[in-house]
Amino acid sequence: MSPVLSEILRSGFMINSFLRRSTHLVQSLSVVFLYWFYVFSKLTWDNIKYHENKRKQKSSLIH
User: What is the pLDDT of residues 8-54, one digit of tens each?
Assistant: First the structure.
């Protein structure tokens, strides 16, 4: 095999390997982002519900 062809194949493998690692990194970061988005949304929603219930209890005590 000629040195030029060998170098082309080697660089192709390096690019392929780099793209595979980059894709894996993006997928991992996406999973982390989605998890934290879920946690933040749940905490916010629970906080809203808690304050609504507190307000209802307060208003029922007044009436």
Answer: 777 777 877 877 777 888 889 999 999 999 999 999 999 989 988 88
Residues in the chain: 63
pTM over 0.70: no
CA torsion 41-47-52-55 (nearest 10°) is: -160
DSSP readout, 24-40?
A: HHHHHHHHHHHHHHHHH
C-alpha 21/C-alpha 27 separation (Å) is 10
First CA to last CA distance, the chain: 91
